[in-house]
């Protein structure tokens, strides 16, 4: 199995990860080191590094400081995990011209136009999201790469979907907040947007890392775009149920509320819900598998969420509770119960 995995990679490379210790990037950094690559991490001073990697302590938004720390280096591949605006990508191209062969940008599968019928999303699905500024900014970042990348380097665009390791996937009171899981453990109700039957694709970061590293230095990735997701699709009801089981909860109390109503209570949820999670998300990874033939997502959510819960439970400081989340959830549930006394939990 080890030799099969190594066959994905063309040579030992000098890699730079801009942001390499986050939810997705930590697994990518660990795999890069396990494969013997020379890994450099550019991160803000004071941020934790990773054993075996070289640190470039600098705020990438300070272009003069970044130019100084990058001056002695040339990289085979640079992976940008933390750019969200077009001007940030333009800055990277200025900093890296003549200093790297391949620039990989993490965009987002939320940039795809939402399906008008039951068909898997591919790289040729149009990019359009009128509901979410985050997604529109990612689309503009891609346009910068397509039009302004210097001839001395190539670009690769990668679109992850809902990828997890050290986050909670529940839309209300989750992600970096542990509030929804804490409510489950205390026997309190949690909110499910919609009726919970929409299919959704989730990917463990370790599986994502296999695809990303397979694209590093890969000629088939030159000036191309790829989505990297698992082939597992679960309903939101299943996602909540499996999260509850991983948290040790046998009887979770779920309240289903239409996304439009939730957005009326909190307009900030419009992008995440109606711009993304309210729609079926199925993906066809044929293009990735042609470029990286041995890519296979192997970690089902039922296993991955247990790993995530174990990570949270190993350190109480990781289980961050957000009082505003709890207060908002309670207020919504109270208002919903008054508006629809016949509503049920299940």
Q: Which shape, going by the Cα principal axes?
A: globular
Query: Stretches where pLDDT falls below 50 for ≥5 residues?
Result: 1-9
Which series of helices and strands comes N to C? Answer: HEHEEHEHEHEEHEEHEEHEHHHHH
* Main pleated sheet: 7 strands, parallel
Could you please describe the fold and organization of this structure?
It is a single chain. By secondary structure, the chain is α/β, with parallel strands linked by helices. It is 38% helix and 17% strand. It contains 13 helices and 12 strands. It has helices at residues 2-6, 25-34, 63-70, 86-96, 133-148, 179-185, 205-215, 236-246, 259-265, 270-277, 286-291, 301-313, 323-339, and strands at residues 14-18, 38-43, 54-57, 75-80, 100-106, 154-160, 162-164, 190-193, 199-204, 224-228, 233-235, 254-257. The strands form 3 sheets. The protein has a 7-stranded parallel beta sheet, with helices on both faces. Strand 5, helix 5 and strand 6 (154-160) form a beta-alpha-beta unit. Helix 4 packs parallel to helix 5 and helix 8 (236-246) crosses helix 12 (301-313). The longest helix is centred in the C-terminal third of the chain and has 17 residues, at 323-339. The termini are far apart. The model is unreliable at 1-9 (pLDDT under 50).
């Amino acid at each position: 199995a080890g030799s099969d995995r190594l066959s994905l990679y063309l040579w030992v490379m000098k890699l730079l990860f801009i942001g390499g210790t986050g939810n997705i990037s930590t697994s990518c950094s660990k795999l890069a080191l396990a494969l013997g690559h020379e890994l450099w991490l550019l991160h803000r001073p004071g941020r934790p590094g990773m054993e075996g990697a070289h640190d470039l302590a600098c705020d990438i938004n300070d272009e003069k400081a970044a130019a100084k720390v990058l001056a002695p280096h040339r990289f085979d591949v640079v992976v940008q995990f933390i750019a969200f605006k077009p001007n940030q990508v333009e800055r990277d191209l200025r900093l890296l011209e003549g200093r790297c062969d391949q620039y990989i940008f993490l965009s987002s599968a939320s940039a795809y136009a939402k399906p008008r019928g039951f068909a898997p999303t591919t790289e040729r699905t149009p990019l359009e999201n009128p509901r979410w500024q985050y997604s529109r900014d990612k689309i503009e970042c891609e346009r910068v790469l397509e039009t302004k990348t210097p001839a001395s380097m190539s670009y690769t665009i990668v679109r992850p979907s809902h990828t997890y390791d050290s986050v909670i996937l529940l839309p209300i009171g989750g992600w970096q907040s542990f509030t929804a899981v804490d409510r489950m453990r205390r026997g309190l109700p949690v909110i499910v947007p919609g009726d919970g039957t929409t299919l959704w694709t989730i990917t463990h970061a370790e599986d994502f890392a296999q695809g990303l590293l397979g694209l590093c230095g890969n000629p088939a990735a030159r000036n191309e775009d790829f989505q990297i997701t698992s082939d597992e699709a679960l309903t939101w009801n299943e996602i909540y149920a499996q999260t509850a089981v991983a948290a040790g909860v046998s009887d979770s109390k779920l309240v289903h509320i239409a996304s439009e109503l939730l957005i009326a209570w909190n307009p900030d949820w419009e992008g995440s819900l109606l711009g993304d999670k309210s729609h079926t998300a199925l993906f066809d990874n044929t293009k990735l598998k042609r470029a990286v033939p041995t890519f296979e997502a192997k970690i089902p959510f039922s296993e991955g969420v247990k790993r995530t819960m174990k990570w949270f439970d190993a350190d109480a400081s990781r289980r961050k509770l957000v009082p505003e989340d709890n207060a908002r959830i309670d207020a919504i549930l109270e208002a919903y119960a008054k508006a629809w006394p016949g509503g049920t939990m299940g």
